[in-house]
Amino acid sequence: MKKAVEFRLIESEEMPPVVIKKDEDTNGCIIVLNRAHTIWLSLNRSTIPGITQSLAEKLNQMCDGYLEQQLFNMGME
């Protein structure tokens, strides 16, 4: 089952241009785009979508490392 991604727009000088956060109700993803950084978002609008491949690789590395550590810990018990 594919999880839905919710997009929200805000305008806050204190927040970064893009935020990925957990939806507490559905455990899905919320992507927050900050209009206060429209110039930066505009200049990087072609770069930002390309982040997904690198992000997927880093997430896989992180998760694989965690699972390997859990398996190691189970073997030590």
Per-chain topology:
Layout: E1 5-10, E2 18-22, E3 29-34, H1 38-43, H2 47-76
Parallel strand pairs: 1-3
Antiparallel strand pairs: 2-3
Tell me what you see in this structure.
- Strands 1-3-2 form a 3-stranded mixed β-sheet, with no helix packed on it.
- Strand 2 and strand 3 form a beta hairpin.
- The protein is 47% helix and 22% strand.
- The chain has 2 domains: 1-45, no CATH class; 50-77.
- The longest helix is centred in the C-terminal third of the chain and has 30 residues, at 47-76.
- It is elongated, with a radius of gyration of 17 Å.
- It starts with a strand and ends with a helix.
- It has helices at residues 38-43, 47-76; strands at residues 5-10, 18-22, 29-34.
- By secondary structure, the chain is α+β, with helices and mostly antiparallel strands.
- The chain has 2 helices and 3 strands; from the N terminus they run E-E-E-H-H.
Low-pLDDT regions? none
Strand line-up in the sheet with most strands: 1-3-2
Total DSSP helices: 2
The count of strands amounts to 3
Secondary-structure element order, as H and E?
A: EEEHH
What is the SS-derived class?
alpha+beta
Terminus-to-terminus distance: 35 Å
Quote the average pLDDT: 92
Shape: elongated
Total domain units: 2
Largest sheet: 3 strands, mixed
The helix content is 40-55%
Note the beta-strand portion.
15-25%
Task: List key phrases describing it.
77 residues; alpha+beta; 2 domains; 3-stranded mixed β-sheet; 2 helices; 3 strands; 47% helix
